[in-house]
């Protein structure tokens, strides 16, 4: 079968831009469509293409579509991309009889939004194995009904499907991602803040924790599934001379023993690359020796979801630690010389004083690359259930993490100005990594 996998374009909308002329905050999601490369891995024997809408424009997509004439079109979708994916699917539906499949974060948490005539199947959660099973069925002239984790659409009726009981088998770790399918885009995949070309590798799916705002745990039904170190090493080596490896797990060192084993194998193999991992603050505090060993293996930077500096908000986010742990983690990382990419969340309930305190914390603690988003209750998360009564914007195009979809405590114009000004000042600070 001819299978076209599509990564949607950057399509979220911006209230600060539309209402207040602030053009600096529109969220741009960059990086290779790794989930599509993973999905393509098991599809040996099929003709597969990946179109990256974040690298090419819409006209190029339709030209590719017309030339390729796919039998199956597969979309991935973040919440802010859902409406755009529906629009693309509607046009494809009018043009041909290809099967149209959608998966990703929004399909997992809100499959009913895609229970429409534009789609044939919805893949929920980690889709590598379930999507390959679906393709096998379609290639054999059968339907995909009854595959766990795959819903056959039934517009106007309630979706009916069997939840997938995710396990190690769903990783299909003997099959590598199809990095070759994005070769023409490779030069566009780089980390702008650090000026480094990068490739993506994953060591685990899911997470060991369940923060109220996060969509990661639902991808694996709340389980934390780790790849074997040999599979990860294979993928790192497959990326060849790409100097920077971004580990795209939600929690790279969630299994300390396995992380230590992978580190040892990287060192033994003589791999000389820079690594970028996501690590929890409490993991850093509990395992400083592990971080030190990884520094030796090439760990250059870590993304740490600090989220906030106030214990009350950390508790509300279900972070499972308090602010003093954040300070300890920062000290450890500075001592090791590991660059900190610190994720922080500005609540719509922030006051001017809250913004000032956050800036003071970031500057005095020398967070090299601070990333500041706006608290966004993504439909399907615990946070959404908690905040649903306060939501004033339901258009999914605005769920980009740079819009306040609940009412702000400050006058809205002042909130966005304070947010935009803080982001600008933080990006201008002199403590940038060398």
Describe this protein's structure.
The protein has 434 residues and is an alpha/beta fold. It folds into two domains: 2-168, Response regulator (Rossmann fold, 3-Layer(aba) Sandwich), CATH 3.40.50; 189-428, Alpha-Beta Barrel (TIM Barrel), CATH 3.20.20. It has helices at residues 15-20, 34-40, 58-68, 82-95, 105-109, 128-139, 229-238, 256-269, 281-286, 288-297, 311-316, 323-336, 352-364, 382-387, 412-428, and strands spanning 2-7, 47-52, 72-76, 99-103, 121-123, 150-152, 190-191, 196-201, 204-205, 225-226, 244-247, 274-278, 299-307, 339-346, 369-374. Strands 7-8-11-12-13-14-15 form a seven-stranded mixed β-sheet. Strand 11 (244-247), helix 8 (256-269) and strand 12 form a beta-alpha-beta unit. The longest helix is centred in the last third of the chain and has 17 residues, at 412-428. The model has no long low-confidence stretch (mean pLDDT 94).
